[in-house]
Design a protein that fits this description.
279 residues, mainly alpha, globular
């Protein structure tokens, strides 16, 4: 006969009492996380909007952690460890891409019900996203201005502009094997990298003989893989915004879709894409 006695996990050794002990809720600070949603309207879909953006910020928090560590490994010449971190960042952006699928279940009518509650707030003002772009090399000091009301955030971003970007560090590794012009290596690191024919030729040499430059070849592909997912994230952002608000201006004052489409043209690691035509 089937035993219908309810299963008691304690019989198999599961901890069931947490008075004065670390629990799952304690370790993850779930009380703080799960009470951080404060809708400002009675619209049902505002909760979706808040949670989608909050979880995206959490994934970006992890991406920053991994990019910073990968950069440190590259600076130390430990490329193998950096590869794992860069592969993880690509998967993080895959998760960020999947989040758009959930947000796209919200219709224009749904969004219109609570859009006024956003005021001037906008994803354009995400300091973590801006930090990621700075870390990757897309550096524009004008983008400090939306954070000028928070000196702590502005200082964090300024500090990043004083460090070599992930791509700058990758180019130093490339230079160790295939010398690059001084102008590439000694440029003002607070400014964006400008595509260089000499850099493209050096990466092309890596791709033409991957066996002789295997670690650089793998580094290049890890960077391309990550930018592939990053580009998809930007594209999904554009299509989601167009689907929900059409061509209205963004709540933060940007052109909305027109601004986001302009961002699609930004290349993080340009020579790694351009060389493919020449192979």
């Amino acid at each position: 006969m089937t035993d219908h006695t309810p299963y008691d996990p304690a019989q198999d050794g599961a901890q069931m009492s947490f008075d004065g002990r670390m629990s799952y809720t304690d370790y993850l600070s779930l009380d703080a996380i799960l009470t951080a949603q404060h809708p400002r309207s009675d619209a049902h879909d505002e909760m979706l909007f808040i949670i989608q953006h909050q979880t995206s910020e959490l994934w970006m928090r992890l991406a920053i952690h991994e990019i910073d560590a990968a950069r440190g490994m590259l600076e130390a010449g430990d490329l193998r460890k950096a590869f794992k971190m860069l592969a993880r960042v690509a998967r993080i952006f895959e998760q960020l891409n999947n989040a758009w699928d959930v947000l796209r279940t919200m219709t224009p009518s749904d969004y219109t019900r609570f859009r006024p509650a956003l005021g001037q707030s906008s994803g354009f003002q995400s300091w973590q996203y801006r930090l990621i772009e700075f870390m990757l090399g897309n550096r524009n000091s004008a983008m400090l201005q939306p954070h000028s009301h928070r000196e702590d955030l502005t200082e964090r971003l300024r500090s990043e502009l004083s460090r070599p970007s992930l791509y700058d560090v990758a180019l130093r590794q490339l230079n160790a094997a295939i010398p690059l012009p001084d102008g590439v290596l000694s440029r003002d690191i607070a400014t964006p990298h400008v595509p260089s024919p000499e850099v493209r030729e050096a990466w092309t040499a890596v791709y033409r003989d991957p066996d002789a430059h295997w670690e650089l070849y793998e580094l290049a592909e890890k960077l391309v893989d990550f930018e592939d997912y990053f580009r998809r994230w930007r594209f999904n952002h554009v299509t989601t915004v167009e689907r929900v608000i059409g061509f209205k201006r963004g709540t933060g004052g940007t052109g909305g879709v027109s601004y986001l489409r302009r961002m699609l043209d930004v290349e993080l690691f340009p020579e790694l894409w351009h060389l493919r035509t020449e192979l």
